[in-house]
Amino acid sequence: MSVQNDAILPKGVSRKEFDKAIKKFRALLGEENVLVKADQLVPYNKIMMPVENAAHAPSAALTATTVEQIQGVVKICNAHRIPIWTISTGRNFGYGSAAPVARGQVILDLKKMNKIISIDPVMCTALVEPGVTYGQLYDHIEEHDLPLMLSFSAPSAIAGPVGNTMDRGVGYTPYGEHLMMQCGMEVVLANGDVYRTGMGGVEGSNTWQIFKWGYGPTLDGMFTQANYGITTKMGFWLMPKPPVFKPFEVIFENEADIVEIVDLLRPLRMSGTIPNSVVIANILWEASSGNVRRSAYTSEPGRTPDLVLEKIQGDTGMGAWNLYAALYGTQEQVDVNWKIVSDVFEKHGKGRIVTQEEAGDTQPFKYRAELMSGVPNLQEFGLYNWRGGGGSMWFAPVSEARGSECQKQAALAKGILHKHGLDYVAEFIVAPRDMHHVIDVLFDRTNDEESKRADACFNELLDEFEKEGYAVYRVNTRFQERVAQSYGPIKRDVEHAIKRALDPNNILAPGRSGIDLDTYKKT
Amino acid sequence: MLVANVLAFALLTASAQAQDGGRWGSGKNLYDNVCGQCHAPEVGVGTAIAGRGLPEDYVKFIVRNGFNAMPAFPASFIDDESIAQVTEYLSTLPAPKALP
Fold first, then answer.
1. Could you give the CA distance from residue B99 to residue A412 in angstroms, rounded to a whole number?
2. Quick one: what percent of chain A has pLDDT higher than 70?
3. Distances from the Cα of B27 to the Cα of B33, B53, B86, angstroms
4. Which CATH number is A15-109 given?
5. Which of A19, A460, B27, B71 lies in the 20 to 30 Å Cα band around B77?
6. SS3 at position A476
7. Are B64 and A127 within 8 A, CB to CB?
């Protein structure tokens, strides 16, 4: 196994040129931080998409520990036209994991840059390096008894704030829109300059993690889901830990209830009565994250019949839709808001309210409550056990927070998934005005025929949603070029003009979000 | 770097994960923070791995390659020494009552 990987090179780079670059990388980073052997690279090539690993195989991986090293890396890349794919913790499962968007790109792995540079418990801010995980932050906060609460995505224990925020991920607390809570970035540009956003360029400033906008153009968002720079530090705001936290669930029996659920919720979210990113999970999301396996109910291939879903509902007490939300604040605040919220659902009459006292330690209530209160876990990976086989792609169209729209999207997605013999496993993440309609396209990646169906299904989902004016907010590396097309040619022209200005040699993650100077043709 | 100036008033921690004797410090720490998050019997997401006498080579192979939905971890995330430590730690834990 421990042999040099000779088969894979970056696109357009000769072996001779590649070897020159590797020699320079070794001089810069040390032998042990330049990985070229097959057994060193295999962990970076584990993907969940319905395509051969070879399509996303790296030619090498570099591990850097300082900003200066990263400056040196981009200098070498420019000299030899080496494309690099940067990862922080590489845990972007279902979106491409750690693997590069294109075969042959060199991975720049920043996991070893894992310093929590500062946490200010008074101003409730943090500044971290890319390799810091939420689990590490949680341990730090607990160890130092800091009155702070984290917000993170479901793979919280092993993922980190830099990677999640740079991919515009969301969490489940009142601070769940992570880019909104980001404050200050340090970015190494392709020319080696170190650029600090917001107040970060002001000598002696103490407001880099305090005030987002700085002066003049505010560029933080431009670096997310993009390939314009390498983020080496990121600041973000932390929620003060509330004295009282009250999670709850409302269980709805019927699929058609989604319209009323959303229309009931929207005013509560807009008014801030419910402050956090509410989740409405369908029966299959709820069941699988609660460790229910498909194999316990059927061995038939294809989509799971509705009768089975009803049986699971009957057996488990789970709903067709399961709403999770929480209240935060002093006892008085929570009491007032609880009365407002519970009155709304009791008056509506279709939902069954479950409190933490009633749920106890049962799953999935327990892990949902943990996610809403900043306690990391990996319970939601139970999703992958529903069908088994390790195939997963997130299809995540944006929807209005309007009941009729959610129902329309759910019906459209379900029909397409069923046509391809796959299940509708979905949740809505509810902001005041928008919904992230997150669907896990689960398939058995060890089954070639099923993988092909999943691939065709994902293409059809993108096509049919686009016809209705819908598009996803984020997508796995296999479909990034396709989704870029949904957002129109002018946007793409602008993105490539920025790319030409900042990275004329196209060394930073070419292909990320469809931005690639070598392949893009202006319309 | 400017960080020290920028954050002179803040609680400067410069905290990083343990580097000595394996990146994770101990097998228990790695199990509690990563492996056990799925594989602990009370979680039930991944197959129980405690107390089963799993050989270090096998643990390393699965950690590096992943298996089905189990993700793969490069050495930057879980180094070889930490794999050895967690293998040793797993051997000290009681076997699950019934293997899945």
1. 41
2. 99
3. 10, 15, 4
4. 3.30.43.10
5. A19
6. coil
7. no
Question: Cβ(A126)–Cβ(A184) under 8 Å?
Answer: no
CATH architecture for the domain at A244-475: 3-Layer(aba) Sandwich (3.40)
Q: How far is A172 from chain B (nearest CA, A)?
A: 19
Q: Which residues of chain B does A136 touch, with a Cβ-Cβ cutoff of 8 Å?
A: 15, 17
pLDDT at B14: 43
pLDDT per residue as tens digits for the range A143-152: 999 999 999 9
With beta carbons less than 8 A apart as the criterion, state whether B78 and B56 touch: no
Is some CB atom of chain B closer than 8 A to the CB atom of A389? yes
Render the burial of A452-473: b for 16+ CB within 10 Å, e for the rest.
Answer: ebbbebbeebbeebbeeebbbb
Report the pLDDT averaged over residues A117-131.
98
One-letter identity of residue B99: L
Residue A48: the pLDDT is 97
Mean of pLDDT values over A348-356 = 98
Nearest to B14 among A115, A135, A376 (CB): A115
A210 and chain B in contact, CB less than 8 A: no
Q: For the segment A376-416, what is each residue's pLDDT rounded down to a tens digit?
A: 999 999 999 999 999 999 999 999 999 999 999 999 999 99
ipTM for the predicted complex comes to: 0.95
Domain A15-109 matches domain A116-240 at the CATH topology level: no
The number of CA neighbours under 13 Å toward the Cβ of B24 is 27
Q: How many other CB atoms are there within 10 angstroms of residue A137's CB atom?
A: 25
User: A206 and B8 in contact by Cβ < 8 A?
Assistant: yes
Give the CATH superfamily of B22-92. Cytochrome c-like domain (1.10.760.10)
Q: Are strands A182-188 and A426-430 parallel, antiparallel or unpaired?
A: unpaired
Q: Do A46 and B3 touch (CB under 8 A)?
A: no
- Contact residues, chain B, for A138 at CB < 8 Å: none
CATH code for the part of the protein at A116-240: 3.30.465.10
> Would you tell me which residues 33-92 of chain B have a C-beta closer than 8 angstroms to some C-beta of chain A?
33-34, 37-38, 43-46, 63-77
A473 contacts A168 by C-beta, under 8 angstroms: yes
b/e per residue, A355-388, with b = 16+ CB within 10 A? Answer: ebeebeeebbbbbbbbbbbbbbbbbbbbbbbbbb
A227 within 8 A of A85, measured Cβ to Cβ:
no
Q: Is B100 on the interface with A (CB under 8 A)?
A: no
For helices A258-270 and A403-419, give the axis angle rounded to 10 degrees. Answer: 130
- Looking at the complex, report in whole angstroms how far the Cα of residue A394 sits from the nearest Cα belonging to chain B: 14
What are the boundaries of each domain within chain A?
15-109, 116-240, 244-475, 487-514
Q: List residues bridging with A321 in a β-sheet.
A: A252, A282
**Beta strands per DSSP E along A36-82:** 60-63
Q: Would you state the structure tokens that stand for residue A358, as one six-digit string?
A: 């009633």
Reference A451, options A420, A480, A427, A475; nearest CA is A420
Neighbour-count burial of A149, counting CB atoms closer than 10 A to its CB (0-12 exposed, 13-18 middle, 19+ buried): buried
**Do residue A381 and residue B46 have CB atoms under 8 angstroms apart?**
yes
Residue A127 φ/ψ, nearest 5 degrees: -135, 125
Closest CB to A44: pick one of B37, B46, B74: B74
- Taking contacts as CB-CB distances below 8 angstroms, the residues of chain A near B1 are 67
This model's pTM is above 0.80: yes
